[in-house]
Input
Amino acid sequence: MGAHAVCRLSELPPGERRIVDVEGRSIGVFNVAGELYALRNACPHQGAPLCRGLVTGTMADSRPGEFDWQREGEILRCPWHGWEFDLKSGRSVFNPHRTRVRSYQVTVEPAEDEDPRIETYPLSVDDGIVLVHL
Amino acid sequence: MTIPQPIPAAKLAVKPAKARVGIVDVDVHPGPADPDEIRERMQMPWRDRYRGDRRSFYRHPIHGTRQDSMTAGVGPECSDPDLMRRQLIDEFGVAYAILIMRTFCNIHPDPDFAAAVASAFNVWLNDTWLSTHNQDGAFKGSITIAQQDPLLAAAEIERWAGQDHIVQVTMDSGARFPFGSRYYHPIYEACDRHGLPISVHPGTEGMGINHQPTPGWPTHYIEWHCGMSLAFQAHLISLITEGIFERFPSLTVVFVEGGVAWLPAMLWRLDAYWKALRIEVPWVRRKPSEYVLDHVRLGTQPLERPDDDRQLLQMFDMMPADRVLMFSSDYPHWDFDSPDRAFPKLSPDTREAIFSGNARALYGLA
Output
C-alpha cells in the first residue's frame, strides 16, 4: 500500500496515459484535460488490458432516433469487447451501480531536491511527480 | 485452368505428430499482412481482380477486432504469428488452434473468381501458418471452399484432404440455400469420403448473393450480429430434415461463432414436429436431436452468460454440453472469449470434454 511514483507531470500531458506495474498490479494513469485519474488495467468482464483501450466519448441515453454525443475524452472503451468506463470513477456506462473497475487516487507532489548542495528553485507544478495511491 | 495447380505432395514434409498438452481452440482467424500475399498465389485473370475484399457494411462501429492484436509495422489483427502465440497459445496453454480464414469468397456472383480466392487462401495458409510458423504442430488448418460451385468446391477438398495439419473443411454460413439442400451434396460427399468435418462460420449472411436469415435487412450491426445464430438454426434444421446425416454417415458439421444456448429449445421443437410429420421426411429415421449427438458440434463462442450461472449450467445439461460443445475463442475478434474468464465453473469432466476431449476426438489430435 502507499504512494507510488509514476512519472513527472510533464511526461503525462492532457490526453495521454501511462501504464505502470505497481505492487503486482497493472494500473493505467490518465490525464483528462489536466486532471489525473488511475484505473486498474484489468477489465472486470474477462480481464482484458482495459487501459490500452480507446479514450473517447459516448452517446448519452436518448429518445429513439436521437443522438447525443458527450464526454469526449472521458470514456475508456475496453480494447476487447468495448465496454465503456468513466475514466474519472471507473464506473461502467451501462451499469454504473454494479459494474466498475477499481480506481485509485492520483496526486502530484513537488519533486524533492536531488542534490541538497545545489540550490534549486521549483519552476512550476509541471515538474511535480505523479503519485498513484494504492 | 483458372485455379492454381495443386502443390505436389512431396513438398509437404509429413512429420510424425507429437502430442501437445493443453486446451484446443476451434476458431482462430489468421490472415495475411497484405492482400498481395494472396494475390501472388493467384493466376491470371484473378490476380488483378483480388483486392482483399470484405463485406462493406454490418461492420463493428468501433473495432471489429481486439485492439491489442495488431503489431505495428507488421500487419493487421492475427497477421503476426509471434504475437498470436504470446496472446493465445502461451497465455492460455492452447495445444492446438484450429485455423479458419476469413476469405469472404462466398459473397461473389462469379463462381470461378470465388473458387480462385478460396484456393489462393488455402495455398497461403499452407505456405505460412501450417508450415513455416508451425514447427511444433500447434496450428491445424481448414480447407476453405466457395459454395457457388459445389463441384469446384469438391475438387478443392480433394486437393488438400490428407495433407499435413489439415483437419477440416470450412465454409461460411451465408448461403442461397439452406445447408440440407441437395445442391451441396458434392461437398458433403467429399468430406464424408475423406473423413473431414465441415465447419460453418458466419459473417456473410445477406452479403452479395446470399440471403439474410432475417426478414430483410437489419438496421444496425448489433441486430445483424445477434441474428447470426438464426442462420445456424435454419441450416441445422435443414441438415437434419433433408437427411444429410443419413446420406453421409461419417459427416460432422461444426457451427462456430453462433453461441450455444439456442440449441436445446430448437431441438425440443424439431423432435415434437418429427413425431407428427415424419411421413414427410421418412429418411429421418431417428429423433432429430439424436443426430446432433453424432453429427453436430458447436464452438462455444460467444458463450451466452446469464446473470445466474446456474441457469447456463442447466442448459449445458440439456445439450448435453460435454458431448456437443468445443471451446472456441474467436481470436482476434472483438467478442473474443477468454478461456479463463468466459465460462462458469465446470466439473472437471465437463471442462475436459469441452476444452480438449471433444475437439481432439473429432479432429484426430493426439
Q: What stands out?
A: Strands of chain A lie at 3-8, 17-22, 25-32, 35-40, 54-59, 69-77, 84-86, 103-109, 129-133. The two ends of chain A are 5 Å apart (CA to CA). Chain A touches chain B through 13 residues (CB under 8 Å).
